[in-house]
Here is the input.
Amino acid sequence: MGRWAPGAAQRLPQAAMELFAERGFEATTVAEIADRAGVTERTFFRYFADKREVLFAGQEQFASAFIDAIDAAPDGAALADLVAAAAAAGGAVLQQARGREFARARHAVIAANEQLQERELLKLAKLAAAVAERLKARGVTAVAAQLGGDLTVSVFSDAFNRWIAPGETRDLVALQRESLAALGELAAGVTQPLKARRA
Amino acid sequence: MGRWAPGAAQRLPQAAMELFAERGFEATTVAEIADRAGVTERTFFRYFADKREVLFAGQEQFASAFIDAIDAAPDGAALADLVAAAAAAGGAVLQQARGREFARARHAVIAANEQLQERELLKLAKLAAAVAERLKARGVTAVAAQLGGDLTVSVFSDAFNRWIAPGETRDLVALQRESLAALGELAAGVTQPLKARRA
DNA sequence: CCAGTGATGACAGATGCTGACATCAGCTGC
DNA sequence: GCAGCTGATGTCAGCATCTGTCATCACTGG
Here is the structure.
């Protein structure tokens, strides 16, 4: 290795999280993050494409949990089962990786700044697109696959938001089952009126 | 009025759309947009909070179509009907306001740049939250309302994406019915396994 | 011991965005 | 008419984000 302390890729996100939590995202400059991590501003931008990206390091593992769950599902699985399995797999990774407290802290930082919300939404949109692509590869129609991708992310996100609510102690996957139940009830009203409406 | 040609608020988005379509979003500077509109860069930032926002002028009308449709629905309406009505109202506004060709051109500009996609996703997320809020005001439970807001936007977006596909001539609301049908089929698989699974 | 490699530092510059103050047409009250 | 106010715009200075380019230097392989 080089003449500098290794692990800059790990120190930078940690320094960023600390500073963002202390003073907020906009009140923190990239130079300050780099200083705390012991590198220069230029090096920060060698590791992360922009200032926001430092909060989204290592999301590939999270996204691949969704994908792998779909690819690993048995052949006859219904679309609803695929959605549930993918969301559950993503939730499991999230719970094990860093835990609820870390998720809460990270979410608080993101919730306080629209630029960060935008980045998170883009990541989730890409995840939904990737899920839809794997669904199509299994033979799901294009329309159902696109909606299935969106729904997977919606079920995950809605459950996640309740999972990190103050005082909540239930398991993330249990909360996803709750969201899925609401989805089932909602959609029970859509199938029948669509054919029987005004009959 | 002042000593300058009026209508800067209209000329700026038009100049921006032209330049973005010609050379792309990143290759266009705010100074160039302002020049074409006959104002200074500083004036641009008086009308729009940032460079991206110029493409999202006048979205309040679009969002209020969703909200108004929910508030105007009859008392006994099922959640699924509210979702369908809101998406249909938003679609109607979009079709009448500027038409499919304008939507295609605008979407092409946005699809070519991730910064613009982020902004659009943020607008849609806020719309989903606003829809969820109105659903809760009608007595829908928090869990169902959050999911209902997401679903409204998903149904709208999925149908919109097909609406602007090359060669597509069907009505936007007709495409939404297609998305809703896919939703019904998907969710038909979720209600029953949730209670009967492993029975 | 020497050339190559790869990560980092140093520096200059374009662009996005903001604050502060000046300017000037039209309106208002007298 | 005329003085003053108002509101939109221009002008200017400045900070922060992000990028291109080149130099530096520890480590590696021969």
Summary: Residues 193-199 of chain B have pLDDT under 50 and may be disordered. Chain B touches chain A at residues 78-81, 83-84, 114, 117-119, 121-122, 125, 141, 143-144, 146-148, 150-151, 154-155, 157-158, 161-162, 177-191, 193-194 (CB under 8 Å).
